[in-house]
Amino acid sequence: MNTLIRDFRLADTTALTELYNQYIAETTITFDLHPYTVEQRQASWMSHYSATGRYRLLVAEGDGQVVGYATSSKFRTKAAYDTSVETSVYLHPAAQGKGIGSQLYSALFEALASEDVHRAYAGITLPNEPSIAVHQKFGFEQVGLFREVGRKFGRYWDVAWYERRVGE
Questions:
Q1: What phi and psi values does residue 42 have, to the nearest 5 degrees?
Q2: In terms of C-beta density within 10 A (0-12 exposed, 13-18 middle, 19 or more buried), how is residue 167 classed?
Q3: Is the model's pTM score more than 0.85?
Q4: CB 54: neighbour CB atoms within 10 A?
Q5: Which residue of 8, 64, 95, 157 could cross-link 91, Cys pair, CB 3.0 to 4.6 Å?
Q6: β-sheet with 155-165: strand ranges across
Q7: Torsion angle, CA of 14/17/21/23, rounded to 10 degrees?
């Protein structure tokens, strides 16, 4: 599969919403419980990303199809947190294990290196060894564990928090 990593385009909205909704319905990787409509996702999520700045949405396109994405989003709402971002990667199941997540994170951290970003954080619902491995590959270290912090599919889940320095 030939993979292109690029900035988000409005035309990607439907494919990205469908991909994320699959994670909502089938996994604990996200703690969202109800699927989004394309309109909801555009208004509540995709609208705050841009091609420059701290908050990015990069798309992986394989053979002309959206196969994944990586984001850097606002970590917390209070202004003193502005130089910290929360990052994530989502891949279509057929794209997993092919290095596309690493390509996305490489591009994301390269883009963030010249921005006013000091730290990146990632919350990983446990267990999730593939996500832990890709985060560690990019220099993330576990800095915390929230026990039974989210309830989905009738049980409570732990979330490990990972951190890495960005830029200098």
A1: -65, -45
A2: middle
A3: yes
A4: 20
A5: 95
A6: 3-7, 56-62, 65-74, 84-91, 119-125, 155-165, 141-152
A7: 120
Angle at 153 between CA 48 and CA 29, to 5 degrees: 40
Of 43-47, 65-69, 100-104, 143-147, minimum mean pLDDT range: 43-47
Arithmetic mean of pLDDT over the chain = 95
Write out the two tokens for 69: 């994405």
pLDDT tens digits for 77-88? 999 999 999 999
Q: Beta strands of the chain (E only): which ranges? A: 3-7, 56-62, 65-74, 84-91, 119-125, 141-152, 155-165
Dump pLDDT digits (tens) for 12-52.
999 999 999 999 999 999 999 999 999 999 888 878 898 99
Which is nearest to 23 in space by CA: 42, 10, 36? Answer: 36
